[in-house]
Design brief:
The structure holds 2 protein chains of 2 kinds.
Chain A (H helix, E strand, L loop, with lengths): L10 H21 L3 E2 L1 H4 L1 E7 L6 H10 L6 E5 L1 E9 L7 H5 L1 H13 L4 E8 L1 H29 L2 H24 L3 E2 L1 H31 L5 H33 L5 H28 L24
Parallel strand pairs in A: 1-6
Antiparallel strand pairs in A: 2-4, 2-5, 3-4
Helix pairs in contact in A: 1-7, 6-7, 6-8, 7-8, 7-10, 8-9, 8-10, 9-10
Chain B lengths: L6 H18 L7 E8 L8 H13 L4 E6 L3 E6 L2 H15 L6 E8 L4 H5 L6 E2 L1 H4 L1 E8 L1 H21 L7 E7 L3 E6 L2 H14 L4 E4 L5 E5 L2 H26 L5 E5 L3 E7 L4 H9 L3 E6 L10 E6 L2 E6 L4 E2 L3 E8 L6 E7 L1 H11 L6 E18 L2 E19 L7 E4 L4 H14 L5 E9 L1 H54 L3 E2 L1 H30 L4 H33 L2 H33 L10
Parallel strand pairs in B: 5-23
Antiparallel strand pairs in B: 1-3, 1-4, 2-3, 6-12, 6-22, 7-8, 8-10, 9-10, 11-12, 13-16, 13-19, 14-15, 17-18, 18-21, 19-20
Helix pairs in contact in B: 1-12, 2-3, 6-8, 8-9, 12-13, 12-15, 13-14, 13-15, 14-15
Classes of the chains: A alpha+beta, B alpha+beta.
């Protein structure tokens, strides 16, 4: 039943691959940055639907005539639905800024008739956006910090460091994709990112758990082959769980509608990268930290069944 | 090793799933579209006569409706669909215009939970605004401005105190410093000491500190007091918004303070955001005016009715409500009679002083001005249409004789206890409500809300279907057990959401879909462990036992850490993040129960207590 793949033979290649992806992500994040969504930048967003198909150019003309500047107009879902984004208008007062959405609707109705239906309108003030950015950052860091503590307490500091490095790896690469393709980074994507942390951690812990167990059970074998054995033993589970998770995520991506798109994409990338990192990144770090039998402080439990070694 | 489950564990699994099914059941009964009638007055009730008039009108218009019920506080009339709902609302509004009472007619949904379920306390899940449509506002109260006004008033008070001939403290300068207090300097040490003594006596709540190197002091309002001032300003606005939301005719509005200076306003079902904003922006105000002398020309006066008598006030306004900082009921320390203590801001104190110092003995009135909305029927081109128009009401709420030149602080005496309370309340309502602005607004149209529900429900179904199919193919009989657990998990999530009154949002549905995908993880861990143990040469029964036992710690660790992340998400998140975190956390907890205890139960039923040669895994 058990496969026997020498994962660790490819660990140098994996390290190079991770390094490449990480540096590409960091470079893109530095130069391209993220395409922050309305939740973070503030501004106004209006989604309207028309009875007949309408070209974005005509909507743009109407907005220009009404004196709006810097707006982005695009189809959203179908050619009858239009999404309009207006950046924060600095010169106007708080009160007027909040009324932009209403003015847009009013302007469109005068030109296209009363059948223009408001599907969604959002206004986010600049202060709220700033706070969210801070909160989001603090949230990510708190999550990572508490996870570090928990794993250090339940396992051992080396496992905790490995898990956290893997998390950083996953989060940065996922962010890198969003930066490189300039996808909208809104609150739902932030939620997805935090869920990626949860997922990737799940993976790392399952693998770590097995490594710890094998270190205690199998004596006098090199750490690298114990890790290999552990990876082989958990491989079936890793693949199946990733598969079922991706199954539902693709369902969301295809069926969930436009609003949930960013969320689904974020998680799909995160799950793929997370699966890879639980195999290669966390383990590589463990080897770098020279994980050894001495690190497993608890002795083997009396009467616990010995597990045979599958190393060839 | 026979893998029989003890009775108590069987009972736990059965009863939890049973209870879950009961508390999830109300969600199977979709609510009806309904029109709700309630009194504009918060404690008012709906008369049966009004309900009858409403239903009669619907009959007259040949509208289909069912289940008109009046529970005293409000009445519900159920209709067939959303189109009828809009029509019925207009007709009912027409019908109720004849009534003297002010009724609010709003769109609502009427629950269809069977009585035996609602007797058990079961109720359907609440839908968030992104699913039912509506407007969400996040209002921010401009508290720094309130504090700065308060400091200006404090500056005036201190100046007045120092200038008072009884005290005569010669200061060199007074200025507002660091937005928490006053900086006062003096020519010599003696005056400083005298000032300290005087301030400590008159304003015991201020803290006084010396300024190093300068003959002067810092007089500070302490942090707790600043907090109190902020709280007052925010609470005042919350009350004002609640009153105004009632005017809007919203079925289940939510007005809630958020953090230090924000207020959340959720108005489900509201589509006309411009109207909502207009109404939220309206404030009541006050005018302080002198009573007109008997020879004053009527062109320069307004007539009011005060306690049954006609009284004339000058048109000229001394000051308005925006100068009033606070009004509280107090007692005159000498006579022990109730009184209302009024506190103005600095500029207000000056205006009041100028207006009253040569008018001692005359009477001064306070006028309360409110903008309200009134629905009116207009006929244009043969069709009746309802328009709501704002109108202004003015009411004289106090008329009292000026006893001395007034300043920042003064009082209105000669009131009965009830009158004093009422007057203070009205004065506060018309007082400067701290400025508020919209920090965030989200509107979801009703059609998008419905679409979100459909897409969400469909995604859950398809996601669940795919995972169930996969598990059956991959793990056969064991997959079947896992699928039963997965189904139970979904029921439990819905049950917990329903009984906690948690709000389901679109990201929340995404969380449920994700949980469906991840919940099988625990089973996958157990099953692969069982396969491993079989490969290690354990007997089927031993393998099942070892698989469950060994995987348990791993599952616990993995889920606990994910739960920690979900809880952090919940505590820092707003809006969509919170909605996602709620279902994710609940899903993690319920899935641990169903995947470990539930699956074991089913597998023990299938294989336990007998000799098994092969496992279908």
């Amino acid at each position: 039943m058990l496969k026997n793949i020498d994962f660790m033979a490819g660990r140098k290649v994996a390290a190079i691959l991770s390094g490449l992806f990480l540096s590409a992500s960091i470079i893109s994040l530095t130069f391209n940055q993220l395409n922050w969504g309305l939740d973070f930048t503030g501004g106004t967003l209006v989604e309207v639907s028309f009875e007949k198909t309408v070209s974005p150019e005509r909507v743009r003309d109407v907005l220009n005539n009404d004196g709006f500047t810097g707006h982005v107009v695009q189809y959203f879902g179908s050619e009858k639905e239009i999404l309009i984004r207006i950046p924060p208008q600095l010169e106007s007062s708080e009160g007027r800024r909040a009324k932009l959405g209403d003015q847009v609707i009013l302007g469109l109705r005068t030109v296209f008739g009363e059948s223009v239906a408001l599907r969604r309108s959002e206004f986010v003030g600049p202060a709220v956006g700033d706070e969210l950015t801070n909160q989001g950052g603090i949230g990510l860091l708190t999550a990572l910090g508490i996870v570090l503590l928990y794993v250090a307490f339940r396992f051992q500091l080396k496992f905790a460091l490995a898990a956290v490095v893997a998390l950083f790896h996953d989060v940065i690469i996922t962010l890198g994709f969003f930066s490189l393709f300039q996808w909208d980074f809104d609150l739902t994507v932030l939620a997805a990112l935090l869920a990626v942390i949860g997922y990737s951690l799940n993976d790392s812990i399952v693998v770590s758990d097995r490594i710890r167990e094998n270190f205690r059970a199998i004596r006098k074998t090199k750490p690298i082959s114990i890790i290999n054995t552990s990876l082989n033993q958990t491989l079936g589970r890793t693949v199946v769980t990733s598969f079922t998770t991706l199954l539902v995520l693709f369902t969301l991506l295809i069926l969930g509608g436009e609003l949930i798109l960013g969320f689904a994409i974020g998680l799909i990338i995160g799950v793929i990268v997370g699966t890879y990192s639980s195999i290669y990144v966390a383990t590589n770090i463990l080897l770098l930290l020279r994980l050894s039998q001495e690190d497993m402080l608890v002795p083997v439990k009396e009467g616990s069944d010995q597990i045979d070694q599958f190393d060839s | 090793m026979i893998n029989r489950y003890p009775l108590w564990k069987k009972l736990i699994v059965c009863s939890v799933v049973f209870l879950g099914a009961i508390y999830a059941a109300p969600n199977l009964y979709p609510p009806d579209y309904a029109v709700q009638i309630s009194s504009r007055d918060a404690d008012g009730s709906v008369s049966d006569r009004a309900l009858l008039a409403a239903t009669d009108r619907l009959k007259l218009e040949n509208m289909e409706f069912f289940g008109a019920e009046n529970n005293g506080g409000s009445a519900l009339i159920r209709v067939k669909n959303d189109e009828d709902q809009l029509k019925a609302r207009d007709f009912i509004q027409f019908a109720l215009l004849e009534f003297a009472e002010d009724y609010v007619v709003a769109l609502n949904s009427a629950p269809n939970t069977p009585e035996w379920l609602s007797n058990l306390g079961a109720a359907p899940m609440k839908y968030g605004l992104d699913l039912r449509g509506g407007v969400h506002f996040l209002m921010e109260v401009d508290t720094p401005a309130v504090i700065s006004e308060r400091l200006k008033a404090m500056e005036q008070e201190v100046k007045q105190l120092f200038r008072d001939p009884e005290n005569r403290v010669r200061y060199s300068s007074i200025s507002i410093s660091e937005s928490t207090g006053l900086r006062i300097t003096f020519d010599n040490q003696d005056t400083e000491v005298a000032a300290r003594v005087l301030l400590r006596e008159k304003f015991p709540s201020y803290t006084i500190k010396g300024i190093p190197g300068v003959t002067g002091i810092m007089v500070n309002v302490d942090a707790a007091q600043i907090r109190e001032i902020e709280d007052f300003a925010v609470e005042q606005n919350v009350v004002a918004i609640r009153n105004r939301v009632n005017e809007l005719g919203v079925a289940e509005p939510l007005v809630q303070r958020l953090g230090r200076n924000r207020i959340v306003v959720d108005l489900p079902g509201v589509q006309d955001t411009a109207r909502a904003k207009n109404i939220l922006g309206k404030v009541a105000t006050l005018e302080f005016r002198m009573e007109a002398s008997s020879e004053a020309r009527s062109a320069s006066t307004d007539n009011f009715n005060y306690e049954g008598f006609d009284s004339r006030l000058e048109k000229r306004v001394i000051l308005r409500g925006d100068r009033v900082l606070d009004a509280q009921v107090g007692f005159d320390p000498e006579t022990n009679q109730p009184q209302v203590n009024i506190r103005l801001d600095g500029g207000g104190g000056e205006l009041m002083h100028r207006a009253t110092r040569y008018n001692i003995g005359r009477r001064m009135g306070v006028v309360f001005i409110e903008t309200k909305l009134k629905d009116r029927l207009v006929t244009d081109g043969g069709t009746e249409r309802l328009v709501s128009e704002p109108y202004v009401t003015k009411r004289l709420i106090s008329l009292a004789t000026v006893q001395s030149a007034l300043g920042v602080n003064f009082r209105i005496t000669g009131l009965k206890a009830g009158e004093a309370r009422e007057l203070a309340l009205l004065l506060r309502a018309g007082a400067l409500a701290a400025d508020m602005f919209i920090a965030e607004e989200r509107t979801v149209g009703a059609s998008l809300g419905e679409q979100n529900i459909e897409l969400g429900a469909f995604s859950v179904m398809v996601g669940l279907g795919l995972v169930v199919l996969f598990m059956l193919l991959r793990y056969k009989a064991f997959g079947f057990a896992a699928n039963l657990a997965l189904g139970a998990n979904l029921v439990l999530i819905v049950a917990v959401m329903s009984s906690l009154s948690a709000t389901l949002t679109l990201p929340g549905i995404a969380g449920i879909v994700l949980t469906v995908g991840m919940a099988v993880d625990a089973n996958v861990l157990i099953f692969s462990r069982i396969k491993e143990e079989l490969a290690n040469g354990l007997s089927p029964q031993q393998a099942i036992h070892a698989g469950f036992e060994r995987a348990f710690v791993t599952i616990l660790d993995a889920n606990l850490t994910t739960l920690i992340v979900a809880i952090i998400l919940y505590s820092i998140g707003t809006g969509p993040v919170k909605g996602f975190a709620v279902t994710l956390s609940i899903g993690i907890l319920t899935s641990m129960f169903t995947a470990i205890m539930g699956t074991r139960f089913v597998i023990n039923l299938m294989y336990g207590g007998k000799t098994v040669k092969r496992l279908a895994i």
